[in-house]
Amino acid sequence: MPENYKKTKRRVSAATVICAALAVIVLGISAILMMETEIPPATIIYSALGIYLFSLLWVAVISIIRNRMVKGNLADIKSSVFGTISFGFVQNLHMPVLICDEKGKIVWYNEILLSGYKSRGVLCGKYVDSICTETIEAIVQKGEEGLEVSFLSDSFLMSEKNNVVFCARSYKAISKNRVYYTIIFEDITEVKNLNQRLVDEEPIIAYAMIDNLDELTQYVQEFYSDTAREVEKILRDEMEKVGGIVRNYGHNKFLLVFEAQHLATFEKERFSILDTIHEIRVGSSAIPITLSMGVAKIKGSLYEKERATQAALDMALQRGGDQVVVKSLGKFEFYGGKTKTVQKQDKVRARVIATELTSLVSAADNVIVMGHKYPDFDAFASCLAILRVARHCGVKAFIVCDKTTAALAPCFRKIEGDPEYENVFVDKTEAQDLIRSGTLAVVVDVNNIDFCEAPDVVNAVSDVVVIDHHRKTAEFKIQPKISYIEPAASSASELLCEILEQIIDSKTLPKLEADFLLAGIFLDTKNFTHNTGIRTFSAAMYLRGEGANPLDAKAFFNMDLEDFRSEASFETNVTIHKASIALAINRNEDNPPIARVNASRAADRLLNVSGVKASFALCRIGGCVHISARSQGKINVQLILEKLGGGGHFDSAGAQIKNATIAEAKKLLDNAIEEYYIENHYVV
Prior knowledge:
Radius of gyration: 44 Å
Distance between the termini: 93 Å
Strand content: 15-25%
Strand order of the largest sheet: 7-8-6-9-10-11
């Protein structure tokens, strides 16, 4: 016990004894006085009794004081002991500690924090955000969970060694109605480095596949093995540089495994391995060998990574190949895609797709068919082709289409009054009422469900088929039963011709539908001058055999005087960008829907200008700016418009920019073109 407590106890005991002795003495004196004096006995007795009671009162008061002092001293003992221990613990703690008010002003700190302070001056009065990278508000918000911070290098020595990182945890206390925070800084540098090491050394799985070796070696088989080995050697050399491995797991297919820390380097170089492989040639062919690769940049099990990698490779192939697709959480990143796709010459896949499609249609209760928003001849003809397949299978089919679309006016005029197409065309609302448990939705000439005529209808159906010739730009929300995406094909009409040829009997396709399909091919090939291959002419031959007439098909493209003037308005406002890109702009703030078609025609015509390698035509329709792009084959307009949310082909693409003015859209397009030039090291 403390010495002052012992003294107090002794004094109280002595006082009590003295009071008792005094009471005894008083009683004795009173007795003597009663016998020897004349003082009334009552007076003496009362006096003695008063003295005795006073003594008892004194003893009681002293006892109360003693008890209170005992309790107070016990509290002092606790406060003294625990306070000394706590203070000593915090003061000697191996972690920096400070106490600040609610505004972040420092009122106390321990020796460890002071030892790292360069000036060795006083820290009291400074604010938390003047010594570390975070404010007191941010640290307090995280509380005991902690916030990652660093001490400022110009003030603290500890921040200069190995980029020390701390976890700052705050603890609230209130004293005399004032709020204080105790902040403890825990050094987490080693833990963070170990965690980063785990992230860096995490295995990345990639699939690679040679795109066009079969087509390039079709007539020179003797070069096949040598070319495949040359590609594999390039892959092995690339993996050896980063300590990775390569395994051939199939026909021109490779499995690559490397550490995650090297993926950033590959992305920074934009997977230059694609360019290295482009240098390989088969014999005297001028067409380069191309490679597609899928990479998964996700966390999870090896199974999840493998599935994501396969999805990335599928995306690369469905976009036309010659590119790397990196799949991360919720998005894709694309690298490459600089060469035009090579059209496969066999129809094996078309035959397989035709069989699967017939099976699905036959089992369906009904079929709902649609193309993309603002449909053209290609989408319209493809929808009629699916209608023909459904009727061949004996299943009721409906086409979701906006009959007011100006571009399709010649088509509807042609079928008007024909009983075969009566009650076939429905709008979005009517299509909702046609959905059954066994409904099959077929989407043609578009692979992004959000861009189709009725996305809500497609998302409400369990069985979906997608047939398209554009490069894939997004994952499907619902995995289609059939995903037939061939970017090498000239048009969706070409793909549907091959399917019809496998399903229906010869000479049974109505001439009108054959004309529509031929018009669709005319539209997307610019009269067989762009993106045309052997299979394109084969499809045209099939249609010719079914009665299609080129003159009748071309008649669908005739325009009236207003359309002619609308198209001419683009050509009166043309500027040249980077010496080889033509930009045509319709300055009207609002144009009729037909202006979209006129924009594509204007873009086509601009390619006839000497020195123009690519063209873009812009017009504004209903608050949305439409961009049509065309290329001579040197500039990939599809990659440019993908930056604006659009897509298409290497030499033909489109995009829509909502809620924008012409000036705003042009600025975005200029930036996209600039980025394309930088990324592809394009020299004007």
